[in-house]
Amino acid sequence: MNTRTFLGAAALCLVAGPLLAHADTKAKPAVSGDKPKAAATTAQPPMDAKAMEEMMMKAAAPGPRHELLKKLAGEWNTTVSWTMDPSQPQQETKSTSVVTTLMEGRFCQEQASGEMMGRPFTGMGITGYDNVLQKYVGTWIDNFGTGIMTSEGVPDETGKVINWTWQYPDPMTGKVSKGRMVTRFLDDNKRTFEMFGAGPDGKEMKMMTITYERKM
């Protein structure tokens, strides 16, 4: 959350809170013939401005999960194995990836470039850890489509494996496709990424594996 957004949100809450509280408790004039109504429930007092600021700052503060994102910064060589048909052999391509951190380490951006199906490929992803949702969150776009893939990930107890769910508008069906992904951090210089989705028979299949190795 940038400073302007934080101040704007805080100002809105500070103004709206007392106004809404006042509106809820303001007495309405009696109308002749009206039946007596039960006493209204006491309105909750507006949150203390200091407490609200502390909550917002806590939600915005980078934590241990963001340290993992910072470690991804750098240049990577990638090996991509993929198939759209499990009965066919995997195809393999080489590409590169550059990862930079954004917003004081709250997010990281990946820019990938290479070749796929004989065509130049470029893609970009944004990944972060949402303190409110307590999940990793991500988006991905590339020059092979006009849709945006969104994903949410939950780390295991070690923090070295993230299990994701993803969804993307499928150009073949016109509907939203869903699946899962797994990121495994082998060490600070190597990780793997696996993507699973529905195959031609509707059963889950591994669609892609990417191995990242840091350029030394």
Map the helices and strands.
Layout: H1 3-25, H2 49-60, H3 64-71, E1 74-82, E2 91-102, E3 107-116, E4 119-130, E5 135-142, E6 149-155, E7 161-169, E8 176-187, E9 190-198, E10 204-214
Antiparallel strand pairs: 1-2, 1-10, 2-3, 3-4, 4-5, 5-6, 6-7, 7-8, 8-9, 9-10
Describe the model.
The chain has 216 residues and is α+β, with helices and mostly antiparallel strands. Helix content is 20%, strand content 46%. It is globular, with a radius of gyration of 24 Å.
Give structural attributes.
single chain; 216 residues; alpha+beta; ten-stranded antiparallel β-barrel; disordered N terminus
Quickly describe the structure:
This protein has helices at 3-25, 49-60, 64-71; strands at 74-82, 91-102, 107-116, 119-130, 135-142, 149-155, 161-169, 176-187, 190-198, 204-214. The protein is an alpha+beta fold.
Helix fraction by DSSP (H/I, runs of at least 4): 10-25%
Fraction of residues in β-strands = over 45%
| Computed structural class | alpha+beta
CA-based gyration radius: 24 Å
| SSE string, helices as H and strands as E | HHHEEEEEEEEEE
What's the overall average pLDDT, rounded?
83
